[in-house]
Amino acid sequence: MKTKFTSLTQDFATALAAHSGPPCLSLYQPTHRHHPGNQQDPLRFRHLVQGLEQSLEKQYPADKIRALLEPFEDLERDHEFWNHTLDGLAVLCSSGLFQVYVLPRPVPELAVAADSFHTKPLRRFLQSTDRFQVLGLSLHDIKLFEGNRDALDEIALAPGVPGTIAEALGDELTEPHQTVASYGGTNLGGSMRHGHGGKKDEVDIDADRFFRAVDQAVLKHHSRPSGLPLILAALPEHHGMFHQITKNSFLLDEGIKIHPDALPLDELCKKAWEVFEPQYRSRLAKQAEDFALAKSRGLGMDELQEIAEAAVAGRIMTLLIEADREIAGRMDAATGKLQLTDLSQRPTDIGMPVSHDATGKLKVTHLGDPELDDVLDDLGELVLSNGGQVVVIPSEQMPTKTGAAAICRF
């Protein structure tokens, strides 16, 4: 059995909504790309599935549990899958649904059976600001990559995206003898030898039509769903042609002036980050500037209680969340009142009484307590549900020390 991956897009939660009936199983696991680390991944996966089984046994009959866990067992036995993992794995399952996400970043280990899916690690991944895609383009085919400063991986083209010029043009492709595949002296790119002349030879026409088809399909099936910046990697002469016809607003002006097949993947990642980093830094700086301006106008806030109440009221337009920061606590969804236990600082209570032991000492409750959650993620989920934007910011670039910063609509 070959496991099918699910592409993680900005609207992934919409697809889950139709399968939100309990029980909803959520499994997260850090994984390894290479031997020998990946040899232990299936065993760790089995232990997590056993935790799900123990949880289900408290509420559901054996036949129901068996049906739910069968696809997990199939995944555990898929040796090809475990030999091609990346840095993180997410599996979401309910009756009639089994979604597998392979992620280029580690995720905290977790296995939970609940009335709804635990999606916060996936949302955190999507809200990170350092991700991009790379389009590798020649006269004959394309490749698509996704990554960040640390890693770049080739991703499968979505249905409807032509991988080759033959797929794009079909019977309308001109005679192959009019094109010579000579990739800039490296046999990896694509240079053109003109055919019979005229206003525009048939090879140029084919290239123009192929590039237009690629541009339209990548925009529709990859750029818009992911919302990620796109970097073009192609021979210099193809950059000008593609930029003339593109309608993709996610495409960056700067690109990589070499065909990606001519570079090892780690070198392609390095060059892509060199292109993307100035925009990344500029975006972070603008977020900080926008927050400072909003605060000067009375529309910016950094106190968590104030942010929570504004989120409940639907006032927040943009919420900045500090990356890798967790603040344990509870939020009253109706009033926004918070009870916080920030494990990186002294336990703090906002809006609700803090429990004490017999000696009067504060009780510190760890985030693993089932009655607690990460308040920053709860705030992000609430802002998104009210039409706001959530952006995860590296700690060194955060404009506040509280873990969050909000820009309000009014």
Protein model, in words:
- The protein has eleven helices and 15 strands.
- It has 410 residues and is of the alpha+beta class.
- Helix 2 (41-56) packs antiparallel against helix 3 (62-76).
- The longest helix has 32 residues, at 265-296.
- It is globular.
- Mean pLDDT is 85; it is low at 177-199 and 342-371.
- A hairpin with a 6-residue loop joins strand 11 and strand 12 (338-341).
Give a short account of the largest sheet: 4 strands, antiparallel
Question: Any idea what the shape is?
Answer: globular
Estimated radius of gyration: 25 Å
Find the structural class using helix and strand composition. alpha+beta
In what order do the strands lie side by side in the largest sheet?
A: 3-2-1-4
- What is the helix/strand order? HEHHHEEEHEEEHHEHHEHEEEEHEE
Total number of beta strands: 15
Helicity range: 25-40%
Uncertain runs: 177-199, 342-371
Ends: how far apart?
54 Å
| Discrete helix count | 11
What's the rounded overall pLDDT mean?
85
Strand content: 15-25%
